[in-house]
Amino acid sequence: MFWNLVRYEFKNVNKWYLALYAAVLFLSVLIGIQTQSLIKLPEKNLSVLLVFLSTVFGGLMVTLVISTIFLIIKRFKGSVYDRQGYLTLTLPVSEHHIITAKLIGAFIWSLISTAVLLLCVYIILLSTNSDEVQLSTLLSFVGEHFTGFSLTVLSFLLNTISGILCIYLAISIGQLFNEYRTALAVAAYIGIQIVIGIIEVFFNTSTNFYINSLAGFNDNFYMGASIGIVEELIFIAIFYLGTYYILRNKVNLQ
């Protein structure tokens, strides 16, 4: 049943999302091709066309990010707390399975969106400066900085999971009220982010990470990345347990 829940996260997804992925990739190829030919144009025409293409591409990328966030919210709120929630919560699965299935689906969609964005940037850079961004060059760079690269990727993955669970917790907090649930969920999310920001600023200041970085300590990056990973794990545990507690004990579908 659990894997049926996971598979459901990829069913009935609006084809508009897939079309958006294709549009962003196509436009990145177009920008890369046009950049080569635009060099021969007068500077005035070149600037106007590049600004136009960049604006359209930037708009599509922003739309892709917003659409992914909207998809995460819709798939969780719609199937847990809206009308469909009655069916979801009566399935022979635990609240842990429900949250985990939603998290896996949202995490994969987030990775797909990130991969599309990175691929778009790579295509454009490859078209404009192929010598500097060859795949072999990138792989060599990763090999030389493997430890730092691995910590960065791990930190990004954990930050993505933490961000998704933070959205889930904010939505769940909003459901504790009978009115203005969406507005209160947004307020809860903002409040959580403010608290996280204060904690991180206080921690980084108290441990002199920034001072050490300016002083040139070689191990500062690894220390900071490792501590950041621990922080993300703590946030993940808090957000997950908070969502689980509300879903199990305080859920109100009225």
UniProtKB/TrEMBL annotation:
Keywords linked to the UniProt accession: Membrane, Transmembrane, Transmembrane helix
Domain of life: Bacteria
Residue spans crossing the bilayer: 16-34, 46-73, 103-126, 146-171, 183-203, 223-247
Record's protein name: ABC-2 family transporter protein
